[in-house]
């Protein structure tokens, strides 16, 4: 097999909205990560971004009509040979055409012939997204297995703000890679469920400029929130201080700094949640006293820093859980003379009382601040399953599969 043939083949459809310029960043990220991308814009899209830009970034020719390059039969071949069809942005018009099976240009013909996963990422004004016709079209597409991503909220065209903004290109590419890995549509098996996910690491102040913290980036927690949104959940994401990631489209965001702040928000938001996922790395200790001024260097030895134990938020959430609530914890372990990673994790699961514990072996280049992750899923019923090294989005998908299995059982 040639190198070109082994590269994942992506058809990138581009709709005629002002967000079409962001498709260029999606295209760049896909090509730089080894994907063979064929851009199929609508005629309206080319009024925002020229064909030359798409051709230069993809290395492939760009056509909009079924009569271009007729001997190759592109209106059939593109969809048949693709590993993923990704539409960015998916306008209200494109969603309507796809939902009703219309095929009046190369992109809509490709959507009809595709037998691979299809991901449509909407972008439009709030009123258009919320219109009953659009909502019906989205529901119809999802019922057929098309993944219609939830749009973000924020600044739209002109002075308008609201839901309908195109998600961050990095988030779009992350979701596209997940579908390529799974080679199927994400199930909408969390619809009607309220989910709370914590992410990142807390910071415990020592003085106005110093703190005790950890290396958690929040990437795994954000991947869990992002995947839950796309599987239909109503998601609240509680982001701790170490997180510097783009907001998750479709999730409500609450920012916290310290363990005490995280504790208050988690108890409040978990009160009416169906599923609580404590992915945040909570500092075990905090300085007993916080200086109101920057502690200066002196010639004498500094005073020892007295520490106070932080509350065990996961254990508290288990103790206060409502009937039927599923609670998932995380354990970052290194192993020591008292036991290996799994031995420590099994003891923690028993001590905390969670329904599911996600275990990561941590250390240099492992789990924290990385793009990939691996570990184990330990269930309260005693079952254990290893999760092979994969993207954090893929691991998030595996974790949600396990959570849904718990709910169904």
What would you say this structure looks like, in words?
This protein is α/β, with parallel strands linked by helices and 409 residues long. The protein has two domains: 180 residues, Flavin prenyltransferase-like (Rossmann fold), CATH 3.40.50; 215 residues, 3-Layer(aba) Sandwich (Rossmann fold). The protein is built from 14 helices and 19 strands. The protein has an eight-stranded mixed sheet, sandwiched between helices. It has a five-stranded parallel sheet with strand order 2-1-3-4-5, with helices on both faces. A two-stranded antiparallel sheet has the order 6-7. α2 runs parallel beside α3 and α2 crosses α9. The model has no long low-confidence stretch (mean pLDDT 91). Its EC number is 4.1.1.36, 6.3.2.5. It comes from Actinophytocola xinjiangensis. In the C-terminal section; belongs to the PPC synthetase family. In the N-terminal section; belongs to the HFCD (homo-oligomeric flavin containing Cys decarboxylase) superfamily.
Please outline what is shown here.
The protein is built from 14 helices and 19 strands.
- The helix content, as a percent range, equals 25-40%
Number of helices: 14
* CATH architect. name of the largest domain: 3-Layer(aba) Sandwich
Structural class: alpha/beta
- Please describe the biggest sheet, giving its number of strands, its sense, and whether it closes into a barrel: 8 strands, mixed
Which strand-content bin applies to the residues?
Answer: 15-25%
CATH superfamily of the largest domain: CoaB-like
DSSP strand tally: 19
Number of discrete domains = 2
How far apart are the first and last residues' alpha carbons, in Å?
A: 44 Å
Predict the CATH topology of the largest domain.
Rossmann fold
Task: Sum up the overall morphology in one term.
Answer: elongated
Overall CATH class of the largest domain:
Alpha Beta
Q: Which segments are poorly predicted (pLDDT under 50) over 5 or more consecutive residues?
A: none
Mean pLDDT: 91
Q: What is the radius of gyration?
A: 24 Å
């Amino acid at each position: 097999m040639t190198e070109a043939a082994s590269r994942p083949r992506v058809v990138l459809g581009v709709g005629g909205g002002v967000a079409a310029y962001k498709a260029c960043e999606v295209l760049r990220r896909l090509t730089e990560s080894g994907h063979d991308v064929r851009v199929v814009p609508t005629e309206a899209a080319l009024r925002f971004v020229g064909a030359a830009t798409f051709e230069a970034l993809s290395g492939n020719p760009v056509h909009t009509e079924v009569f271009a390059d007729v001997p190759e039969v592109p209106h059939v071949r593109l969809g048949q040979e693709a590993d993923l069809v990704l539409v960015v942005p998916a306008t209200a018009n494109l969603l309507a055409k796809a939902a009703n099976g219309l095929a009046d240009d190369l992109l809509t013909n490709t959507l009809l012939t595709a037998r691979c996963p299809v991901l449509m990422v909407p972008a439009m004004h709030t009123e258009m997204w919320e219109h009953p016709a659009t909502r019906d079209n989205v529901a119809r597409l999802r019922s057929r297995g098309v993944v219609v991503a939830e749009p973000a909220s924020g600044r739209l065209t002109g002075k308008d703000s609201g839901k309908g903004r195109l998600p961050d290109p990095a988030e779009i590419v992350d979701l596209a890679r997940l579908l390529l890995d799974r080679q199927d549509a994400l199930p909408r098996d969390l619809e009607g469920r309220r989910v709370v996910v914590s992410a990142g690491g807390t910071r415990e102040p020592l003085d106005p400029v110093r703190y005790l913290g950890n290396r958690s980036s929040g990437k795994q927690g954000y991947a869990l929130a992002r995947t839950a949104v796309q599987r239909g959940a109503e998601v609240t994401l509680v982001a701790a201080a170490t997180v510097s990631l783009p907001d998750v489209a479709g999730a409500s965001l609450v920012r916290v700094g310290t363990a005490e702040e995280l504790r208050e928000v988690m108890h409040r938001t978990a009160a009416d949640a169906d599923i609580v996922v404590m992915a945040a790395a909570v500092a075990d200790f905090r300085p007993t006293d916080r200086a109101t001024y920057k502690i200066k260097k002196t010639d004498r030895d500094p005073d020892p820093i007295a520490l106070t134990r932080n509350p065990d938020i996961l254990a508290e959430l288990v103790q206060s859980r409502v009937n039927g609530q599923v609670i998932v914890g995380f354990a970052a372990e290194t192993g020591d003379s008292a036991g290996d990673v799994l031995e420590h994790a099994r003891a923690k699961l028993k001590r905390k009382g969670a329904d599911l514990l996600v275990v990561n072996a941590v250390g240099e280049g492992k789990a924290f601040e990385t793009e990939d992750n691996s570990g184990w899923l330990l269930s309260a019923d005693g079952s254990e399953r290893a999760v092979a090294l994969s993207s954090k989005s893929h691991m998030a998908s595996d974790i949600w599969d396990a959570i849904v299995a718990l709910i169904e059982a």
